[in-house]
Amino acid sequence: MRNLSGNQIREDFLRFFEGKGHRRVHSSSLVPANDPTLLFTNAGMNQFKDVFLGAETRAYSRATTSQKCVRAGGKHNDLENVGFTRRHHTFFEMLGNFSFGDYFKKDAIAYAWELLTSPDWFGIDKDKLYVTIFEGDAKVPRDNEAEAFWIAAGVPKERIFGMGAKDNFWQMGDTGPCGPCSEIYYDLGLVASENGEDVPFPQDEQRYMEIWNLVFMQFDRSTDGTLTPLPKPSIDTGMGLERVSAVLQGKLSNYESDLFTPLIAAAARLTGFEGGELASERVSELALSDEKGAASLRIIADHARCSTFLISDGVLPANEGRGYVLRKIMRRAIRHGRLLGQEQPFLYKMVEAVRDEMRAAYPELKESAERVAKVVLAEEQQFARVMARGSIELNVALYNVMSRAVSQAYREKNSLYRQAYLKYYMSLDEIEAPTFERVLDDDWKQEQEHPDFELTAAMYAPIANYMQLAQLDGKKAFSLYETYGLPKDFISDASRDARIDFDEDGFEAAKEEEQQRARASWKGGSQKTAAPVYRELAQTDFLGYTALKVEGAKVLALVKDGVGVPSLAPGETGEVVLDTTSFYADSGGQVGDVGWLYADNHGTLVAEVSGCRKPVQGVFAHSVTAKETIAVGDVVDTVVNGEVRSATMRNHTATHLLHAALRQTLGTHVKQAGSLNDRSRLRFDFSHFAGVAEEELQEIEDIVNAQVLANSKVETLVDVPIDVAVHELGAMALFGEKYGDKVRVVKIGDFSTELCGGTHIGATGEIGLIKLVGEGAVASGVRRVEAVTGTGSLGLFRRDADVAKVAASFIGAGDASAEALRARVNAQEEEMKKLRRELDQMRAKSASAATANAAESAIEVKGVKVIALRVDALDKAQMRNLVDELRGKLGSGVVVLGAATDEGKVSLIAGVTKDLTGKVQAGKIVSALAAKVGGKGGGRPDLAEAGGSDVAALDGALAGAAEVVGGLLG
């Protein structure tokens, strides 16, 4: 067996299949193109999915790839196992070879056996290999055909094992292509066994490791479960690079291979584990061991790879979807860094280590690494803040549990138990005073401050009896785990320290519930085959790049509500598929054309076209409202609305200019993250970490309009090999697009070169002018710029001119510039602030004068003086000041103020002097009064506020204040 590096294994695999007539295809993005059914690319076949489904054709019938994959969410979720097993990963590379209706089982089996066992290639000992085949079921017979081909390739019959559908029958989804498969296993030897026992294949999953799966797609499953043989059976195989690297390097664990050991060493250095320096043999030992800290290093190494590639492919940390999974992965790595003692940001430095190890196979990392590191650092800094906040929320949750336990003690015993509990737990470092201030209710606070409060050690025992019943709810704990990233162990330990039971079963149930929701949200691989009505049609010949009108287009199909129909009657809506068209279909951010279909007499309007799309590759479906009866086989003229097309093209070409200008101004880390080009505007989303300053926006605007004034020619190069387009012409690929081997390149002088299938103007001067109209955040690390062109710019300037006229009349004759208007507005704002201050002072003085003798008119209730006044002129701050003033005049007593606000609401405030808060609390007073005015409120024992909606009831509520106080005094 040859000892090969991971990089050499990858290259040898691809080179082997190139020698067998396969096209080497570069790995697709981890964000599946045009496939909303997948969370992430999770298998080598994903980028060929439409080919297998019959919705796309390629210029080749054999392909080989090394596909980057992620399984960390949705249906395929290995996240919790990563780091604790030998071969679970979030990010991995899948080596594969594919046949699209070309060769089948015989050749696929022969190729696999040759590559694995030939001394010219991997040279694996044949005695170490086992093969499985589908053993058959009620619908599909045993795959004797595959068994015969394995035997012919040189596999002994006794090493071929039949297995059930769970392991050896593959399907893309509930419907569509499916078929039996063969898996190849490698025997790692007795040393790898689970229990040290020598058991036969396939009973020990640790010893016998699957390294390659050969899928034989030979059936099409219908919605009723019927299996129909495919006219062109296909091949899809997948071999894990990490697994085969471990095999060829003689390792038991994938983490011992050279794909991981440099990253584990980097993780140790950056976290300071064992002083930060590890010998190579120590790294290999940790990659396999269960020693404390070893799993954390493996997790950091794996998650650094995954995070680097996901961010490089455009995914950013977020609170939902792909970004949420990325955030969980990153935070898991950060937590394990903290377990190793590293409290400072470190994961962003791992990006450099990943780049250095993998840039040979993925050269795009050289350009994206700096941007990726910035995203990771920002997330690390944010997580530090979240952890601090999460710790406070955990303390509050624990305190609430304690509170309920003590309440039980209080109800069943007496207040001394509660007093003992409070004083005991107030001394714990984990529960900070501000937390108590926020969650203690008025009664408890008063009791804790009572001068007779005492505590003896003997009181702890009855408290402990009730604490045995206290438990931190598992659902609440999981909420802290999900929201703040608090590790389960951290939550469990904090609960134990607080003498509270941790509901682990409830935690796991909540976790499983969340995973079920995730699986329901992302049903990867469930996409159905293309509807037969579209799939069987010939491709539409698109002539719209050079013509707005095409005569003699034949109606190939009519579709209504997803079903083919022979005709559409006047007034009916549906889709028309033509053999040729001038209508552009939605793609690349450009909306489809609108226009009309005319009868072959060139004068009768047959249908209005409101849009165009491509349900399968190359087939154009026109959304129409029929004006005359239209039937399959009819011949029509396609006429695009030229005015709308021109406006859309101006915006589309402006998008290319804007993309280049953003990169020139903000940096080459800027990458498109989405776009929309229609007749009215353009919208461009891009990767960037901060808001774009006003002066930067002006610079960008100047740059793009300089290109417009230059009237540069917009060149379109067709059928350019994609490698030439990207590497020689320097063309940029657009976000979310899927490209074939031959591409269209849109080149605007030396300023912009992009891969693009959209329609464009002939020269930049036709844009007229580009005016930016907005900039803002879309998501973490993603900004959005919006702009208008052509007549849209004219409309914007007219609007601004009207504003300028109003400004001129406001300022007066002379300078009506933005600076002059700003200065005038600022001056008037200062004048308004001054007048407001003076008015507030006058109101306060007036209220103070009006209440100067209020203390003398106080009502005495059970020995307590009560003042209740209506003060409509005052705001809340002034009311609080007046309460303080009146309490001072009373010396001892209760003050209640009420006011009707300008918004037609009621404000109430109650104040109690300190000497009385043990007898009556402001919060209870104001709560009772608020109920009378249709509101509620509360606060501290000495000062509390409330609101209400019934102004008419305010006087009555204030008149009843003395009665409320008397009731509370008992």
TrEMBL record:
> Where does the protein end up?
Cytoplasm
The biological processes this protein is annotated with in GO are: alanyl-tRNA aminoacylation; negative regulation of DNA-templated transcription
Enumerate the Pfam families for this protein.
DHHA1 (PF02272), tRNA-synt_2c (PF01411), tRNA_SAD (PF07973)
Keywords in alphabetical order: Aminoacyl-tRNA synthetase, ATP-binding, Coiled coil, Cytoplasm, Ligase, Metal-binding, Nucleotide-binding, Protein biosynthesis, RNA-binding, tRNA-binding, Zinc
Recorded GO terms, molecular function? alanine-tRNA ligase activity; aminoacyl-tRNA deacylase activity; ATP binding; tRNA binding; zinc ion binding
Which EC numbers does the record give? 6.1.1.7
Q: Which residues form a coiled coil?
A: 818-852
User: Record's InterPro entries?
Assistant: aa-tRNA-synth_II/BPL/LPL, Ala-tRNA-lgiase_IIc, Ala-tRNA-ligase_IIc_anticod-bd, Ala-tRNA-synth_IIc_core, Ala-tRNA-synth_IIc_N, Ala-tRNA_ligase, Ala_tRNA_ligase_euk/bac, DHHA1_dom
Q: Which reaction does it catalyse?
A: tRNA(Ala) + L-alanine + ATP = L-alanyl-tRNA(Ala) + AMP + diphosphate
Every Alanyl-transfer RNA synthetases family profile domain range: 4-799
Provide the cofactor note recorded for this chain's UniProt entry.
Answer: Binds 1 zinc ion per subunit.
Positions of Zn(2+) binding: 652, 656, 756, 760
| Functional summary from the UniProt entry | Catalyzes the attachment of alanine to tRNA(Ala) in a two-step reaction: alanine is first activated by ATP to form Ala-AMP and then transferred to the acceptor end of tRNA(Ala). Also edits incorrectly charged Ser-tRNA(Ala) and Gly-tRNA(Ala) via its editing domain.
According to its UniProt record, which protein family does this protein belong to?
Answer: Belongs to the class-II aminoacyl-tRNA synthetase family.
Query: What protein name does the entry list?
Result: Alanine--tRNA ligase
Q: Which organism is it from?
A: Bryocella elongata
